[in-house]
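Issue: copy button drops trailing tokens. Both records pasted manually instead:
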Amino acid sequence: MTTLFLPAPTKPPATTPPEELSSLFHSLNTSSIDEEGIRMPQAIIKARDGSLTVMAAESVSLMYAGLALQFRECDPQEIIFGWDRFALAGQGLQFQDFLSVHHWRYGAGWRYGVINYQFEPLTVRPIAWDHSFWSPVLNTETLRNFKALGILEALS
């Protein structure tokens, strides 16, 4: 069974800077690390009116579908989401476990990063933006999925 959660939007302070959403995303996701990793990564959508929607999905396809729906309904200013992943040797990460970070802002476009972590002992790194190995992979994946949903042009 797959689940998509779309809680009621909340209103952040009017002065929320763009980097604050990245920090909130990092905190929200890394607080749920256990021996299985990050079981259901969270996405955050900030509408132009300043409201925030937090979303989680059990599959990649549900997450992209939910993000497309949010894009169509809330006229986003900013979107940030990610996937729990496993790195291989030679991919430039200290630990095998990481969360990909896909971040879009109106007028600025996409940027990508990784949150590298391990469970035992719990160690969590800050977001490493523009990772040499993973950022190009994430860019290709993100654009392909949004193109398939027919909203890529609107996010450009």
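Record 2 (pasted manually too):
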Amino acid sequence: MKLSEVLEVLLKAEDEALEMRGAAEQEAKTLVQKSRGKFAADQEARLSAAREEARAQVESAKHSAEMEALHIADLAQKARDTMEAHFEKNVPALIARTAGEMAARYAAQRRA
């Protein structure tokens, strides 16, 4: 084999190596871009899921607070109803007793 043939084979090998290197670099760039895109999509999906979970928790807390407020209002209404019933039951006797006491005092003052 002649020196020129050896040189030609070496130059062709170098050209092939450069082509292979360029192809490898391009493949690496593509792989990096795909990985970045997948990472960004995964991160957005996680953030979206976290936002949805937070929204669900807020809605649940809001519903619980509304139910508690309704329960408290119901208890307050029952207490008012009980007081009103108690008042209605006891007021006639209270009025009669007070009127009787006033009449007794008035009568005592008239005798004196």
